[in-house]
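Lay summary. Proteins are chains of building blocks that fold into shapes, and those shapes determine what they do. In this project we predict the shape from the chain. Here is one chain we studied, written as its sequence of building blocks.
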Amino acid sequence: MFKKNNFIEHSIQGVLSFLKDSIFSEEVALKKGLLQSLDPRIKVLTFLVLLLQVLWLKDVRILMVFYGFCLALSCLSGVRLWFFLKRTWIFIPLFSLFVAIPAIFSFFTPGDAYATFHVGGIKFVITSQGLAVALLFVGRVLTCVSFAVLLSLTTRHFELLKVLRIFKVPQIFVMTLGMCYRYIYLFVEIIEHTYLAIKSRVGVSVHTQKGQRIVAWNIANLWTRSYQLNEDIYRAMLSRGFTGEPFVLNEFKIKTKDWLWVSWVVMVTFLFIFLNAHIKI
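And here is the predicted shape, written in a compact code that computers can read:
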């Protein structure tokens, strides 16, 4: 159990460690798995089809089967299940759950009573229709996030950026995304080192006003350093012949396995379309 005065330190270290592991690790993308062996262009297109299919599904049971399909793909791609679940259940799915909770009550979604309870003399009724709507919403968010995370885990960062340019995504968007990805890691380390420096000079206990001044000074200092870093990097890129278009040496090649994957995704898509049309909610 952590000591009380170490709570902030452990929280900062935990958040920074999670960011580094979840955003910047390419260990999974370098493994020899099913999705890693596919052409990035084919993979992005098929995942887009799968995401659209998820948004179109109207039955929670079919949606859960689709989510199970995503988990199976992660296992076939060498992604540890617990590692994958931690990165798909935190933040967005949990936030969507809190957003969906009011919809289960009769105040917002009238319908057949599923459960009734009283709190402080007020009667709360959970309706079957509201529960179905909330489960469908959370299931869609969870499944979409899972497919998006699986795509990013099994595809190297520069390959994703190259695919975006192949699909005519605006250059400024791709450049901004690439810069953010690279330099968020740098700023995470700056925050880590800044906290360590403050701790080594003022300790873990400091007066409120002094602490506010320290935080304000470090925010201003970080802004100045980031602005100067931005200018230095841009001048360095120009001096090396940068013209605004990033170049990647890797050449994409579509193989037989890619066409088999496309055929399989098409069959699965039509199967789920059929089930979604013929199974009654």
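What the prediction tells us: The two ends are 47 Å apart (CA to CA).
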